[in-house]
């Protein structure tokens, strides 16, 4: 059997068995480098709209491009940016210098396919490399065999490869796609019998979002429980879906950003003993069009945003180079231009926080990435 195929089946088998365990599994393995630090990556699948989560409120072209979709009640940060009001806890972390937005960022991939872009983020390779293993697994291998964790329903690409990555799936029912809810609302609105029941379901769905009783907060709480153990994983991966927003974006992202904020708080509260030495990286596969479309949403774009959080982060500021939203500054005349390779952020955390050797990062974890120099100044 092909080794990569054998490894995939082993990881998948571990996932199935762990999901049935009434208690959390133990981890083993010593970390080479800074052995008492933590790094967790949260992948928001679907392409988070950076201009909605972190609106550039002082950019003179923002309101023109977004029209009614512009966020007018953003929580003011600094440097010309604000946070969507659903990210209230993140705003508190920013005030305490534990939250760092990195603007105009993207993986090397420049197409508009969710699947190809997500594979590029998880593999960590150049866009043309099409690697079959993930950088999380290769990071585990570079840490002298220390085990990592992927909180996911099936083994993600990031977990496949030469390292030891356990996959654990929380026993939650699938979340409801918010875009589907929006479409069904229009369909049922004129039905006298079904409209009241559907409106009630929509209300209950909104209540779940406001209380954080959804998948992501519980998944992040579970990840914190694993990671705070003395022998717990030093590196982890959590994924979330439902971030594609072609229509009805304001409602959808209000709910999803609230869920993300609740997830960040859940991790923070459950990880108190390790929070001062933790970095949480929140990323997505690409950005969206700078202008709103005709259905109150946005379409697939290029430049996005990444958020770092944690007690080990040098936050309270805006990182990255902002290219602006003027017509001449947009990528292909429609997207926010990406000025930072997402791998530069990952590499900066692995070098300055996890203590991995720069050569191992360039050759083993992110091959063919010498041009993406590690971003410095991310760690307090």
Structural overview:
This protein has 380 residues and is an alpha/beta fold. Helix content is 36%, strand content 13%. The protein is built from 12 helices and 10 strands. The protein has helices spanning 3-20, 50-53, 62-66, 88-95, 114-123, 135-142, 178-188, 194-211, 215-228, 249-270, 342-352, 358-365, and strands at 38-44, 75-78, 81-83, 99-106, 148-151, 165-168, 235-240, 278-284, 304-309, 340-341. The strands form 2 sheets. An 8-stranded mixed β-sheet has the order 6-5-7-1-8-9-4-10, with helices on both faces. A two-stranded antiparallel ribbon has the order 2-3. Strand 2 (75-78) and strand 3 (81-83) form a beta hairpin. The protein is globular and about 60 Å long. Residues 1-33 and 206-213 have low confidence and may be disordered.
Short description:
This protein is of the alpha/beta class and 380 residues long.
């Amino acid at each position: 059997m092909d080794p990569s195929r054998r490894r995939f089946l082993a990881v998948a088998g571990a996932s199935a068995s762990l999901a049935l365990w009434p208690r959390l599994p133990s981890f083993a393995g010593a970390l080479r480098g800074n052995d008492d630090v933590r790094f967790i990556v949260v992948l928001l699948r679907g392409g988070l709209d950076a201009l909605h989560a972190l609106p550039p409120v002082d950019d003179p072209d923002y309101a023109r491009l977004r029209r009614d979709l512009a966020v007018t009640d953003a929580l003011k940060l600094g440097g010309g940016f604000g946070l969507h009001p659903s990210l209230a806890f993140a705003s508190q972390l920013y005030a305490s210098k534990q939250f760092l937005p990195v603007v105009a960022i993207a993986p090397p991939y420049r197409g508009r396919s969710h699947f190809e872009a997500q594979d590029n983020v998880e593999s960590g390779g150049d866009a043309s490399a099409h690697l079959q293993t993930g950088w999380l697994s290769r990071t585990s291998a570079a840490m002298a065999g220390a085990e990592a964790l992927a909180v996911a329903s099936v083994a993600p690409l990031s977990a496949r490869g030469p390292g030891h990555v356990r996959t654990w799936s929380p026993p939650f029912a699938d979340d409801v796609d918010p875009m589907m809810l929006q479409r069904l609302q229009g369909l049922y609105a004129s039905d006298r019998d079904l409209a009241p029941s559907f409106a009630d379901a929509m209300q209950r769905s909104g209540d779940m979002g406001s209380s954080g009783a959804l998948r992501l907060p519980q998944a992040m709480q579970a990840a914190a429980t694993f990671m705070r153990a003395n022998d717990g994983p030093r590196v982890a991966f959590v994924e979330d879906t439902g971030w594609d927003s072609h229509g009805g974006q304001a409602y959808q992202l209000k709910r999803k950003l609230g869920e993300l904020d609740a997830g960040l708080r859940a991790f923070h509260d459950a990880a108190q003993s390790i929070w001062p030495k933790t970095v949480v990286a929140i990323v997505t596969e690409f950005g969206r069009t700078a202008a709103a479309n005709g259905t109150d949403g946005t379409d697939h774009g290029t430049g996005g945003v990444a958020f770092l959080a944690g007690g080990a982060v040098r936050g309270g500021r805006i990182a990255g180079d902002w290219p602006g939203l003027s017509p001449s500054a947009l990528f292909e005349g429609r997207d926010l231009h990406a000025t930072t390779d997402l791998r530069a952020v990952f590499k900066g955390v692995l070098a300055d926080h996890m203590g991995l050797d720069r050569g191992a990062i360039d050759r083993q974890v992110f091959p063919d990435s010498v041009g993406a120099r590690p971003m410095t100044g991310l760690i307090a």
